[in-house]
């Protein structure tokens, strides 16, 4: 089981080895950086990390940086949508990463999710 870095929100679902989820503060906001592939096996860890971060960030914004995600399937989309129903909703940074933005657009979720092109824009 991966060790939790000091200051990171506790996770009950550890991510698999092909997904790294880290947390840091930027201008008061809690930024969740996701690196790797989000699939059926790793999506629960993403959802868990996002909802935990949203709760810990409140009332400050929670920003989820997906710019280094190389694969996102339907399970990942479901995790993003489920986390976006959490109050307050996370701000998702997707830039022009076609591995992430294309599935979101195809599923018609680009209007349902709070999408930004950079962390600075999301702030």
Automatic annotation (TrEMBL):
Domain STAS: 19-123
Leader sequence segment: none
InterPro entries reported for this sequence: Anti-sigma_ant, STAS_dom, STAS_dom_sf
Protein family (similarity comment): Belongs to the anti-sigma-factor antagonist family.
Protein name from the UniProt record: Anti-sigma factor antagonist
């Amino acid at each position: 089981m991966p060790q939790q870095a000091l200051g990171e929100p506790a996770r009950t679902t550890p991510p698999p080895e092909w997904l790294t989820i880290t947390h840091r503060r930027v201008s008061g906001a809690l930024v969740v950086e996701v690196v790797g592939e989000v699939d059926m096996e790793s999506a629960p860890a993403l959802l868990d990390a996002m909802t935990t971060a949203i709760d810990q960030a409140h009332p400050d914004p929670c920003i989820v940086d997906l710019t280094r995600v190389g694969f996102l399937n339907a399970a990942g989309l479901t995790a993003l949508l489920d986390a976006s129903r959490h109050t307050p909703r996370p701000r998702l940074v997707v830039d022009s990463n076609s591995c992430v933005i294309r599935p979101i657009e195809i599923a018609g979720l680009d209007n349902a999710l709070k999408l930004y092109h950079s962390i600075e824009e999301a702030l």
